[in-house]
Amino acid sequence: MPPPFSFDQQVSSATAKEDHIIVHFGEWRITGTIDEIDQFRERMGAPPEAVDTDTNDDEEETLNRRGERTTNDPFQDWGLLFCRPESWENNRTSMKLRKGKTKCEGIGHYPPLFSGIWHFPQYARNPTNNVRRVRTTLKLHINPTKYVRYQWRVPMPRADCPRWPDPIMFKGATTTDDFGEFSLDGKDNWLPTSVAWDAFANPVRWQRHLEAYLRGIPAIFQRELDWAHFNLFAEELPPERQQLNLNSVETYWEFSSDNPLAVVASLQPLMLSMSRRIRETRIYPHDLRELWDRNSLSLQIEIAAGVQLRIYAKTNRRIRFEVIHKLGQDHYRLEGGRTRNNWNALNDMIFSLRENAADIVNAALCHFRSERQIPASPISAFELLLEIVTYVKHAPTARLIATLLYLENSISASKVSKNVRDALGVLTSARILVSDRSKGVYRINPSRRQALAMLRLQAPIGALEARDRSRRRTEARDRFRRPEPRTGEARDRSRTGGA
Question: What is the pLDDT of residue 97?
Answer without folding.
Answer: 95
